[in-house]
Fold this protein.
Amino acid sequence: MEQLDFNRWLIEGGQVVVPLQLLEKMQCLNMTPENLGCIVLAMARCQQNLPGEKLAQDRWVKWCLSEGWAVWQGQGLQKRISFGPLWNRLYKAWQEPGRANGQAVPQKGDFNYGKILKWLDQERGTLSITLREKQVIQELNLKYGWSSDFILIFLQLAFERELNQVQNYQPVARRVYESGIDTVDGLVSFMNELDFIQYKVAELKKYIGQYGGVTKPQREMYLKWHRQWNFGHELIMRAAEETVRTNNPNFKYIDAVLQDWHEKGVRDIQGAEKALVQHEHKHTPQRGKTGGNKRISQVGNRDIEKMYGLE
């Protein structure tokens, strides 16, 4: 009787179905076992018929959305999570015989790793290549099958659009690959058509913990920062970093920080850091002596609403 009760309890809890073919294609999908676990947990949450706002707060669902394994679909009460991107990737893997058999994508032309690193160092003016970036560049060749010249052209196009850090250009590279683009003409067309403002705003939202589509007011605010105030994406992201210290980071906070920098004539990261120290000295009570440009208060105690007049 106890076994019967257990079986009933087990079945009534529901099931998350994972096709065995998905397990077989994990390697060509660049999916780790940990990734698969997160996806399964997100699928389980989505089967609980939770409202959209609840799903938006779930850590596993948020991860799937941020990594591109799932997307929002519908509006209002009909809003739900779709794992369409996951199945689309699996479909493409099934279509490509080489990938479907778990084989590595053949390399296109000679791969000159040093040539790419040298270009990155010259472009940035510093030896700034991290271990993570080296791994991503190798991935572009080994997994995507891109030659050195193709990678260099992609990086040049990405840098022209201020996507000059690995966390910025890697998702774009993935989209290029998933779109089946393997010619220079196709790459140039793709990069020209891609809405980089939309992409950058989406990246900014993800950084401050907001998900879902980019709204028109958010896009217009970003355009103000970028085109009217002449702030690059790096500076905007630095302002966003300040706002994540609050309980509810949002675009209003970022706008207040950037307005302060605009009024002070900030044009680079060094100027931003100096403005932050000055602003903190002005609005934070000093306790004893502080040395140089040392930050006075602890990060967790900073009241940005008060400092930037957002009370």
